[in-house]
Amino acid sequence: MNCKLCGSNKHRKRSGSVRDNKDLDIYECCNCGLVYLSESYQISDTFYENSKMHSSFDFEKWRKQTFEDDSRRFESLKNTITNKKLLDFGSGNGGFLKLAKNVCTKVCGVELEKAVKEYYEKDKIELFSNLNECNKKFDIITSFHVIEHIKEPIEILEKLKSMLNDKGRLIIEVPNANDALLTIYESEAFSHFTYWSCHLYLYTQYTLSLLAKKAGLKVEFIKHIQRYPLSNHLYWLSKNAPGGHEKWGNFLDSKELTNAYESQLATLNATDTIIASFTKEN
Ligand SMILES: [Zn+2]
Q: How much distance in Å is there from the Cα of 201 to the middle of ligand 1?
C-alpha cells in the first residue's frame, strides 16, 4: 500500500492497535510521516447517515459535550468570520454554527447524520446532507475533525476549494498524529485507545501542509493546540486510563499551567490537535 500523499511504498508499523478493529495495523510513511491504517476500507456514507454516533442520540447531551470545543473555535475565529458567509463541513450537532450565526452574514452546515435535521430547523440554520447539494460559494469554510475520516482527502479539499470565493479561507482542524502521549511519553495504554477505524489518516503539521499543496491550496498558518490538559496526561501515565482531567483537573489545571503546557507542547509539535488555515493559490 503506497502512501496517499507522497506515493512512497516504505512505511513502518506504529505500535498500538485500532480500538474497534484488531485486524488493522497502524502505518507511518517513512518518507512524509503520514499515518494511515493498513486497510483503509471505505466506511459507507450510510454509517454516518444513521450512525447516531452520539450516545443514543441525546441531542442536548451531545451539544453539551461539544460546547467547550465549539466555544474555543468560535472565540479563536470570531474576528476572521465576522461579516462573512460561512460553511461548516461535517457540522455535527451545529453547535459551532449556532455561535457563528451571531457574527456571520450567513451560515450553512453539511452533515451526513440525518437525525440532526430537526435541530437545525429549530435553530434556523441551513443544512445540506452532502457537499454536492450545496452549490453556493463561501468566504470561509470550516471543517473540524472531519478530514481524518475521509478516504479521498485531496479530492475533498479540491472540492471545498472550488466552493471558496476568491479571497476565501479554508480552516481545518484535525487530531495530531504526533500527540505527546504517543511520541514523547509512549503511553502504551493510550496507543491501544486512540486509534479508531474511522480515522483513516492522521496528520501532522507537515503532512497537513503537504495535503493542502496537493489540493492546490496555500498554507496561511498551521497552529498547534492542546485540547486535553496536563492532568489528563499525568493520569494516562499513572493509571493508563482516559478522563484524568475530570478527576484531577480541579486541583491541577490552573489557567497558567494549562497555557504554559500547551505552548511547550506546541514547540515540540506534540499537541493533540492541529488547526490550519488555507487560501486559494494565486
Ligand atoms: Zn508519504
A: 11
pLDDT 10s digit of each residue in the chain, 282 long? 899 999 999 999 999 999 999 999 999 999 999 999 997 555 666 677 766 565 557 899 999 999 999 999 999 999 999 999 999 999 999 999 999 999 999 999 999 999 999 999 999 999 999 999 998 999 999 999 999 999 999 999 999 999 999 999 999 999 999 999 999 999 999 999 999 999 999 999 999 999 999 999 999 999 999 999 999 999 999 999 999 999 999 999 999 999 999 999 999 999 999 999 999 976
Residues in the 5 Å CB sphere of ion ligand 1: 3, 5-6, 8, 29, 31-32, 34
From ligand 1's centre to the CA of 198, what distance in Å? 20
| Alpha carbon of 168 to ligand 1 centroid (Å) | 28
Enumerate the β-bridge partners of residue 143: 172
In angstroms, what is the span from residue 266 Cα to ligand 1's centroid? 23
Q: What is the DSSP letter of 176?
A: B
Radius of gyration of the chain (CA): 19
The angle at the Cα of 38, spanning 32 to 41, to the nearest 5 degrees, equals 115
Cell of 86: 460561512
Give the Å distances, CA to CA, from 208 to 54, 75, 211, 240, 253.
27, 23, 5, 29, 30
Cα torsion through 9, 12, 17, 23, rounded to 10: 40
